[in-house]
Amino acid sequence: VDLDIARQELEEFIPHVKNISDSSIKKMAGRDLTRFKEFKKQGIAVKFGRFTQKENKQIQKNVEEFLSLTGIDSAEKLLFTSRYPNDKDTIHRLKTEHHFCEKISEGIPRPWRLIYYRARKMFDPNNYKGRYSKEEKEKLKKYQALHGNDWKKISELMSRSNLSVAMKFSEIKSAINYGAWTKEETQKLMNAVKEVLRRRLKTENADSLLSLEQSDTDLWIEREKLYQALPWTEIETKVGSRYWRQCKQKWNSILTSKLTRGQELYKRTNGLRAKINLIKRLYETKAEDASEVNWDELSNTIGDVSRTDVQSKFYKLKVSSVPLWKRKTFS
Q1: Whole-number Å distance between alpha carbons of 317 and 262
Q2: Which residue numbers delimit the Myb-like domain (predicted)?
Q3: Helix or strand or coil: residue 232?
Q4: Cβ distance 262 to 305 under 8 Å?
Q5: Running DSSP on this structure, what letter comes out for residue 217?
Q6: Cα 173–chain centre separation
Q7: CA pair distance 52, 325, nearest whole angstrom
Q8: Directed axis angle between helix 244-259 and helix 307-321, to 10°?
Q9: What radius of gyration do the chain's Cα atoms show?
Q10: DSSP labels, 130-151
């Protein structure tokens, strides 16, 4: 695989391809590029973000058909082969012979890796075990002390998913403050985010800067990048007194109040107009699922607000104004 050509071809479908490692580019060139081109011919764009109900059903169908084709007797064996050492060689052979990568991603315009991770989340019986007991929390702390952040090993010992044990440990590893944020905590959060953004900018093109850094305090960045995904577990460590999800929510609230006019937009009569406008715009998208909505584009049409703010406003509107909303389809 010529990496430069592969990267150039993939850039048409994946805007952030320049940040992807060479090894991942090689895999995507083999697993995804032909699929992406086929979807393009059909006028279908490559998607990211939350999976729709329709896509989840397609993944379920793909997995069930592959099991039927190969005779493998469970989705857990197919997707978590390492849990079955006695059957491992046979399953790997069947996956290769019957083109597992192509079959599992059939009909879904997303990178193969994301489809695979979604399938593992859907079919992992360890994913849905409810709240952690006190005993489990103690075990988790003990296993982390023994094995570090080897979440795969710890997940096997606890019969919980990798993501579940990693997130739970992040939540319980220190005394977390659930009260109002202090000025000191808020400043720590802003410093941590600034440090991450500064590091990120150094690895990106100069085009991403509105103005070059002049000093340690002057950092100018395109507004949209402030809302992009950040390494929240790293930021949590730097803040020291808050769980990563609290850090994320606080950062979004800072952006909404400091960097937009969202507070004014949603007050009094303007608030009613904004809500009506939001409902109309959502209706015009003809989306069948919330994950099909381009929230960034929608936020621009609503006013000077972030996508997070618009999503939050829509959720509150739905919960407070739509009886039995959980039983209704999105549309």
Answers
A1: 16
A2: 124-172, 173-255
A3: helix
A4: yes
A5: S
A6: 23
A7: 17
A8: 100
A9: 23
A10: -SPPHHHHHHHHHHHHHHTT-H
User: Looking at this protein, which amino acid is placed at residue 180?
Assistant: A
- CA-wise closest residue to 139 among 165, 117, 176, 161: 165
* Tokens standing for residue 60: 């379920």
| Nearest partner of 48 among 312, 330, 294, 315, judged by Cα | 294
Residue by residue, pLDDT tens for the chain (331 residues) are: 677 888 888 888 877 677 677 788 888 888 888 898 999 899 888 887 778 888 999 999 999 999 999 999 999 999 988 888 899 999 999 999 999 989 999 999 998 888 998 998 888 887 767 788 888 889 998 998 999 888 888 988 888 888 788 878 877 765 567 778 898 999 999 899 888 888 877 765 544 444 444 444 555 666 656 666 788 878 888 888 888 888 888 888 887 666 555 445 556 677 788 788 888 888 888 877 777 777 777 777 666 666 777 887 888 888 888 888 888 888 8
Contact between 63 and 123 (Cβ < 8 Å) = yes
The dihedral built from the CA positions of residue 35, 36, 42 and 48, taken in this order, carries a sign that is positive
Assigned token pair, 219: 């950092």
Is the distance from CB of 83 to CB of 123 less than 8 angstroms?
A: no
User: Beta-carbon neighbour count of residue 133 at 10 Å?
Assistant: 9
Closest by CA position to 73, among listed 50, 91, 85, 55: 91
Token output for 327: 């039983």
Task: Please name the helix (run of DSSP H) or strand (run of DSSP E) that holds residue 252, with its range, or none.
Answer: helix 244-259
CA pair distance 138, 117, nearest whole angstrom: 28
- Nearest CA-CA partner of 33 in 149, 112, 145: 112
> What are the tokens at 168?
């739970």
